[in-house]
Amino acid sequence: MVRMNVLWIFAHPEGRSLSGALRDEGLRALSELGHQARVSDLYAMRWNPVVEAADFGHDPAERLVVSAASQRAHTAGELSEDIRAEQEKIAWADALIVQFPLWWYGMPAILKGWFDRVFVKGFAYGVTDPSGRTLRYGDGRLAGKRAMVLLTAGAREPSLGPRGINGQVDQLLFPLQHGTLWYSGASVLPPLVVPGADRVSAEEFRAHAGRLRERLASLPTAEPLPFRRQNGGDYDEDLVLRPHLAPGRTGLAVHYAPGT
After folding, report:
1. Intra-chain end-to-end CA distance of the chain, in Å
2. Of 82, 90, 190, 225, whose CA is between 20 and 30 Å from 182?
3. Where are the bilayer-spanning segments (predicted)?
């Protein structure tokens, strides 16, 4: 069996919550499977989610251009210590588990700030090959790594479906799964969603914990979401899907390969 290094990114303010119990169950499962795990518990770490000049050793008297300053600092090894520590964890990891509650149709601000500060230019974007071609959407720094979202939501399952008032989960998670993780090169596994999280009974928790264990057991081998690769020929020079692919269709679904 493949042994993996797994970085578990946890963004919930209460460790005694359902989310905390699922995290603990998942970490036990990883250990039993022979995987190594590290945890970034963002609230416990008191993670600073605010991008600022000090992240890059930038003179606050000078105008801050975040992309340029972050790339310079990354290249020179001058990013702030907390950012470098998280990047080192990512470099160590074969897989990322990104766990958070769905708040206002998105992730908690502390987790968004983790991505804002850690996924800097030169590390997670702005990466090129020797010819100068930009590596993103299936290529890049996270290529070869796997990622899975573990999401808890207060809404019940039907309302998160195709005709539900809360919208489809795959569309709610598209900015993270496609626009962040896949953009940076990671193969993104289907998310594990725990609906009705505010009303979970002991029996339901055991069922959710069992689903989590099954998903973690298949972490090395599960089929990822079939997002189209930017450099695979499906997009033109303006990064628009070519007319013969998904003809007559628009929207997020066209960025999945056929058969999905």
Report:
1. 29
2. 82
3. none
DSSP H or E stretch at residue 42: none
Tell whether domain 5-224 is in CATH 3.40.50.360.
Answer: yes
pLDDT in tens, 72-82: 999 999 999 99
Q: Calculate the alpha carbon distances from 189 to 45, 145, 150, 192, 213 in Å.
A: 27, 11, 10, 9, 15
Listed in sequence order, the DSSP H helices in 132-248 are 169-172, 174-176, 202-217
Q: Residue 104: exposed, middle, or buried by beta-carbon count in 10 A (0-12, 13-18, 19+)?
A: exposed
Place of tokens 């399952």: 157
Ordered by start, the domain boundaries in the chain are 5-224, 228-260
pLDDT digits (tens, 9 = 90+) for 92-116: 999 999 999 999 999 999 999 999 9
